[in-house]
Amino acid sequence: MQRLGSVSRVLKLLRFSCEGAAGHVPGASSTSRPYSHVHPQGPGSFGLLFDIDGVLVRGRTLIPAAKQCFKNLVDRDGKYKVPVVFVTNAGNCMRQTKAEHLSHLLEVEVSPDQVMLSHSPLRMFTQLHKMRVLVSGQGPVEEVAHNLGFQDVVTIDMLRDAYPLLDIVDQNRRPKSSIPPTKGLRPIDAVILFGEPIRWETNLQLIVDVLLTNGNPDNDWSSVQYPHIPVLACNMDLLWMAEAKDPRFGHGMFLVCLESLYKKITGYDLKYEALIGKPSVVTYNYAELLVRQQAERLGWTTTVKRLYAIGDNPMADIYGANLYNSYLQASRSSKAQKQAKSGGGGLEPSAENVDHGPKLTSAELGGASSVYGAEEDLPDNCSSILVCTGVYSRDQQELPSDTTQTVTEQHIFHGHRDFRFDPSLTQPSFIVQDVKEAVELVFQQEGWPLE
Fold this sequence. Notes:
Elements: H1 7-18, E1 46-50, E2 57-58, E3 61-62, H2 64-69, E4 84-87, H3 95-106, E5 115-116, E6 132-136, H4 141-148, E7 152-155, H5 156-162, E8 190-193, H6 200-212, E9 231-234, E10 239-240, E11 248-249, H7 251-266, E12 274-276, H8 281-298, E13 306-311, H9 314-340, H10 362-365, E14 381-386, H11 407-411, E15 430-431, H12 435-446
Organism: Pleuronectes platessa
Region (Disordered): 338-360
Pfam families: Hydrolase_6
């Protein structure tokens, strides 16, 4: 069975893709360019990464501070002053749809090039694009998969139709009279989990069927062939913030159910070929490339050196930004070690092998065992800014203050199973009330005037 390569190949593809014509990212629109020329003060060297749910909106309702803050980000002509990318773990729509929705709410033009959904980096996982993939989620999942480059896509509904006896939890959906014939499908090569589905029992049942039959539900269940066919998951958020006063279950909760069911049946841990979306490093690396693309459209000639990631979820937005910052520091240390070698002909040490901060796990990198060394255009750092309008609330939550955690604190770890709990990575660089204060803080840090 063909397996995915390491994230090093993916990240190199990401960087190569932005160094082509006009810094164009494959699949990105090149027609909409809502950017002004160089700021009157001269080229800048920073970019902004905005989470959406809990930062700009609550469900379908705009957070008032969001519209106000964008007055500081665009000029009188509605053109952006600084590179802006919207990074969300949502994945139940197309980038164009999300961009249009944000444009309407914020009353500024948002290009699809500025929107990064949880599944966006899958565009670079070309090893899978010719495989037959089963996709799970809601919304136009088949269209999303094709847009990302996947050529042979099977949805849960298509699987139900081909095997009508598999989905029987809901008695109203069971065959009523005679047993319908099985149509059958060619074997499935991989499973992609885009986001939480509507009918959890249906998706859980059919995904387990596929995993236990080596991609062919015509076969009997068997756990002999282990590990199973590749599984890729986008969006690991256990909770997210909508209009309700308390957080709602996210796709991370669905993953917990799937992992528990698989282990309960087989005795083995469910294996992920890749975990995409915040807080994985590959997600922030892709976002950084989009920021660099926007900077080029601004006419900036200097490399983006500082990123500011604004979010509401300590275990997704803050953990991810801090994890990416650790990766950046490790890459810089790796580069320094390489330069310190006089006439050395050995291979450049990977970020995992650099003795600088915590070692990154395969899951944290995005589902691979190694990452390439530092390059000239990597940012110097990524600062995390936590707002109090979403998942995090000063009144209801207290961030861990050190790395010594009690058993109780470990039990309420909301991160994914395959991510280690490093309390220091949940500590934001800054805590502010809302996104307007966050943008004002960034401008103060950068010495830019508030207009």
